[in-house]
From TrEMBL:
This is HNH domain-containing protein. One of its GO terms (molecular function) is endonuclease activity. Residues 8-51 form the HNH domain. Signal peptide: none annotated. It comes from Rhodovulum adriaticum.
Length: 99
């Protein structure tokens, strides 16, 4: 891998060009984050965030990478996915969050 391959701030794995990826708004757009800071994540990492937390929780308590990584379910997920290859993707397991 070359040094210009971005690193996922959630799981710490490289994000190669062929990997599914997306931008995450640290504060949800619908909660005042439109035009705010974004981070590039693996799609699987992004899916886990939104499967775990509501928009209100993201805006109120989990609007930094450090806060996201400290959440128990996300911490368990990142420990698991960190052992997978950089381009790994699968459906997000478990129940969706309450809306």
């Amino acid at each position: 891998m070359t040094r210009d391959v971005p690193i996922c701030p959630l799981c710490g794995r490289p994000i190669p060009p062929e990997a599914q990826q997306s931008l995450h708004h640290l504060t949800p757009k619908l909660r005042g984050g439109k035009g705010g800071p974004t981070v590039l994540l693996h799609q699987i990492c992004h899916n886990e965030i939104h499967a775990t937390l509501t928009e209100a929780e993201l805006a109120r308590d989990y609007n930094t990478i450090a806060a996201l990584r400290a959440h128990p379910r996300i911490a368990k997920f990142t420990a698991w996915v960190a052992k997978r290859p950089p381009g790994f993707h699968s459906k997000t397991p478990g129940p969706r969050r309450r809306r």
